[in-house]
Structures are given as C-alpha cells and as structure tokens.
Amino acid sequence: MPEPFQVAIVGGGISGLACAHRLRGLGVPAVVLESEGRGGGVIGTVERNGFLFEAGPQSFLGTAPVLELIRELKLEGELVQADPNAPRFVFVKGRLQAVPRSPTALLTSSLLSVRSRYRVLSEPLRRTAPVQHEETVADFVRRKFGNEILEYLVAPFVSGVYAGDPETLSLRAAFPSLDEWEREYGSVLRGAINSRKKQGGARPGLCSFRGGMRALLQALESELGDGFVTGARAEALERGGSSGFTLRFMKDGRQESISVRAVVLAAPAYTAGHLLSGVSQTAGDALLGVSYAPVAVIATGYKRQQVGNALVGFGVLIPRKAGLHTLGTVWNSSLFAGRAPKNSVTLTSFAGGVTDAEIVSREESEIGALVESELENLLSISGPPVAREIWRYPRALPQYNLGHAHVLENVRGALAGVPGIHLTGNYLSGPAIGNCVEQSARTAEAVCAFLRGAGGSAAGAARAN
Question: Is there a single domain that holds both residue 168 and residue 105?
C-alpha cells in the first residue's frame, strides 16, 4: 500500500469518500479502506436493457454543500434537475391523491377532512409549548395536527426517509428543525416560513446526474487514486503508542496493517462500534445499540403502453394503513431524462422498513412478485416488467429512535479521551446525501485541526457532531 498516509478512513460510502475529498482539499493525505469491491455503499447505478436503475438513493437535494462538492469535482455539466413543481401523491382511500403544496391547494383538497385542514391552516395562529420529555414524531404530530395528518402524510413521509416508525422515532433526533421551530416560534409553520426567509426563500431542488448517481462516486474514487483501496475489510483498531493508531485489515486473504495519526470511522454504526471496542469499549457498545431498518429496492422497467397511469409527478407514498408491502414508488423516468428507452418508463419501489422487517428475508423473486402485483393495482399496469433489478438491504437505514441523541452524547464523551478517533456517517446528523456530505466536511476539518495540534477539546467536541 502506498504510504505515508496521516489518516485512514474506514468505509468508502459517500461519507468516507466526501471526507477524503475534503481532507485532500485541506492538504491532508488519507487512505480509504472499503470492504466491498466498489465504493458507494448502497449508492449505485445499473443499466439493464436500456433502463437506468438506482440501487439506493434515487436522487438528492441540491443543498449548498452538495453543489459545492459537485463544482469541485467538475460535474456541473452532468447535473440534471427535476421539475420543482412535480406533484407528489399519496395512496389514500383507495386512490392516488396529490399532496397539497399550498394553502389554496389544502383548502380544496379532498385528501383531508375539514377538521384536519382547519388544524393545519390555523396552526400559525396558535402558539404551543414543547413538552419537557423527549417526544416521538407520532406524539408530536398528534398533539399539533391530529391523527389524520399523521396517518396520511407524516407516517408515509417517515417511511420514505427513514423506513422507520413514527411511534418510535425521536422528533428531536430525526427532525430537529420541527422541535426548534416550536421552541422558538411556538408554531411549526411560522418557523418554516421564517427559516425559508433567512435562507433566501428558494428550497433546494431534486437532482441527479445524466448517467445516474454513480457519477458522483466515480469522480470521488478517481480523485483518490491509490488512496482508495477496495476489498479491504477492517478487523481491529488499536492504539499505537505516541505515534497514533494501528488499523488491521484483511486484503486478498492476507492480514495487513497501517499506522496513522488519525482514524475516521465512516462505516455503519455496527461496524464502527465493533472497531471502537479496541480503543473505547464504552463508545463501541453505545454505537452497537443503534438499530437499522431493512429495505428492499425493486427497480422495474415497463413499456409505456403497459402503464395506465400518466405518471406525471415525483411518485407515490403509501400509508401503512393501506395494508400493502410497498412503502412508495418513485417515477424515475418522469423526473430525469435517460432513465428508460423510448416509449418506456422506469419505476423504483421500496418495501420493508421497521414495520415490515421480514420481507427482506424472502427470495428476490417473491419480493418482486409481491410489489409488482401491488403496482398493477396502484398504477393500472398490465403484464410483467420488461426489465427488473432487486436489492435487499437487511440493515439499510439507521433509526433515530428515542434515546438516539443520548447515545451520541455517550459516544462523544467516551471519545473525548481518545484523541485522533473521528466519526462520520448517516447515523450522526441525517441519512440524506446532503447531510452526509456536510457532516463529512465537518469531520475532515476536525481531523485537520487535530493533526495541526489545534484540536484540543474543541476537536474532541466535533468528532461525533
């Protein structure tokens, strides 16, 4: 392995790659060790018979940190954006209904009862105080808006973002802005309006790349060159005396090791927890307690004539109350060009999650048959798909459940006594690509400060932000 490297990063997903990129920009050489044969984690793009399928995230929000990363990688010419006005649908009362996106649309929508519509529209006129204890997303929504809003809008959204259960997700951990807005303004909607004004009004748009999400990964991997090592499974992390740390890993059936001054654990919490046991049992045990939701991704391609629905919009989310296995379906070819051959469409569905965990243990063919059967009724589809890809992820998304913030506090406290160990990943500040990129940049800056001797307690506090 080419040396010397000052930093070793365990995990070549978007968090690890983005962290390495930022370190490179700060003049710090780092090596990324990835256990699989390719980087990206669940992010990946596959072409089948002219269809472009995404194995994980289908798109990303064009937040400032992500767009800055894209500019630095010179990928602006590959960037594509979805129509910001594309409607989103929810399957309620046996049919697809558009989610209201304005007060006027809410007034005229049949999605919600008159009582629920009134509670939403009048919310900015009322001031509520947050509860003193940690609150679940479900309890918060019921308290502020009622059960109908929870079942028809919030619960499907939570499934789409976390594949989680609003009855167990922590509001403060999973959606901190909602908690902050109520504390500051006494109103979620009033807080959202003021927040948008501070940010300039426009919300980030939905983006991808002409050749799919893999473009971002390829650019990051190419930049790293010999500093990106695949098929390297980290097995143990040890203190290396005054020199830093020794990281032991398996590569091509042989055990190898590397000595570095700092280590960034950009792997899932369960992997990071296992490695941390060699330097901080307390931190390791805390991370091993983070739970994950299983998800199956079912990408399908159809001839346009097979699908009765016009597919004008982003896609559809499905409340659990509907009794289906499918959590939601993204209409990829309606969002971005080049996702399907002429006169064809690409759809990507998600199944499983916390409330339907067993589905990922089924055979891929059974999962595909279940979801495609549900899509037939949902979107008026006739006949089997002409192309299909299925991925099963037993531990796809970390769950920001009650107590999650306390877990991270325990990790921060334990790692304060182990200078040089840093964390980044989707279990820290949000699972979205934008969250991961921003978190990784902060981690890289903390690593740089540590290496320059300016870390001290400030760097320790930033390690698990």
Answer: yes
pTM for the model stands at 0.93
Q: Residue 153 carries which DSSP code? A: I
Is there a domain that residue 206 lies in? no
Q: Name the region of 50 (left: φ>0; alpha: ψ -120 to 50; beta: rest).
A: left
The radius of gyration of the chain from alpha carbons, rounded to an integer in Å, stands at 23
Beta-ladder partners of 245: 239, 260
Q: Residue 207: inside a domain, yes or no?
A: no
Q: Which amino acid is at 376?
A: E
Write out pLDDT tens, residues 261-301. Answer: 999 999 999 999 999 999 999 999 999 999 999 999 999 99
Quick: pLDDT tens for 20-77.
999 999 999 999 999 999 999 999 999 999 999 999 999 999 999 999 999 999 999 9
pLDDT exceeds 80 at position 455: no
Strands 51-54 and 315-317: unpaired
Other beta carbons within 10 angstroms of residue 42's beta carbon come to: 17
The single residue listed with the structure tokens 């927040």 is 195
- Residue with tokens 């300016």, as numbered in its chain: 454
Instruction: Quote the CA–CA distance of 13 and 11 in Å, as a whole number.
Output: 6
Number of structural domains found in the chain: 3
The stretches of 332-402 forming alpha helices (DSSP H) are 332-335, 364-379
